Amino acid sequence: MNSTNDEFEYYIIDRAYDKAYPLIGPQDDSRHTMMYPRTRERIENPELTQFRFCAPIPSKPVIGDYFAEPSSIVSKKIANVLDAMHIEGIQLIPAEIETNTGDILKDYFYLHIYNYLKAVDRENSKCKVDRTDPNLLSWIDRFELDKEILAEIPLEKRLIFKLFEFSTIHLYHKSIVNAIMSVKPQGVSFTKVEKWWF
């Protein structure tokens, strides 16, 4: 693929900023649910992941298609889009979410991203190197991606990835964002890398 601006256009996924969308976290007794986000490879025979609403709980929670925990939990609507695209380095694992009233929300999936790329342009980013590991960053205020590094990786291998240097940031290529937004999901937002700040 020839290099174009679109090839390097990435967005950070997040929960919609409307406070009506609840926060979630892993169930206290769900060991595998807490372990999966730290796994940097595909999970064989994964177990059902289980989550629950966390404080502060909105007075009238709106159930959307996306939850951040800080891992991504997506509805079947979004999962169907991703599954059809056969994206390298991700895995959709069945999930359940317990609401504050004890109801169980099914048809959700934990989006396990095991594609990690070292792609921060440190010279043009506002960030701090981790004191214990210079390959990692302890915080990022704003950042730019290193297009020279990305250009060496085929686009199909970097459609969705986590930053190796700061793994809580999940990046989606413009083509994936367009596909997701085409189904009009609720509760999800995408911010272009150049406009994102922490």
Task: Give an account of the 3D structure.
It is globular, with a radius of gyration of 17 Å. The protein has four helices and 13 strands. Strands 2-3-6-7-5-4 form a six-stranded mixed beta sheet. Strands 8-11-12-1-13 form a five-stranded mixed beta sheet. A hairpin with a 7-residue loop joins β9 and β10. The chain has 198 residues and is α+β, with helices and mostly antiparallel strands. It has helices at 31-35, 76-85, 147-151, 174-181; strands spanning 10-15, 23-26, 49-54, 66-68, 72-75, 90-98, 104-113, 116-117, 126-129, 137-142, 160-163, 170-173, 188-192.
Question: Brief description of this entry?
Answer:
The chain has 198 residues and is an alpha+beta fold.
Q: Figure out the total of helices.
A: 4
Rg, alpha carbons: 17 Å
Query: Averaging pLDDT over every residue, what do you get?
Result: 91
| Dominant shape | globular
Q: What distance separates the N and C termini?
A: 32 Å
Write the layout of secondary structure elements.
Layout: E1 10-15, E2 23-26, H1 31-35, E3 49-54, E4 66-68, E5 72-75, H2 76-85, E6 90-98, E7 104-113, E8 116-117, E9 126-129, E10 137-142, H3 147-151, E11 160-163, E12 170-173, H4 174-181, E13 188-192
Parallel strand pairs: 3-6, 8-11
Antiparallel strand pairs: 1-12, 1-13, 2-3, 4-5, 5-7, 6-7, 9-10, 11-12
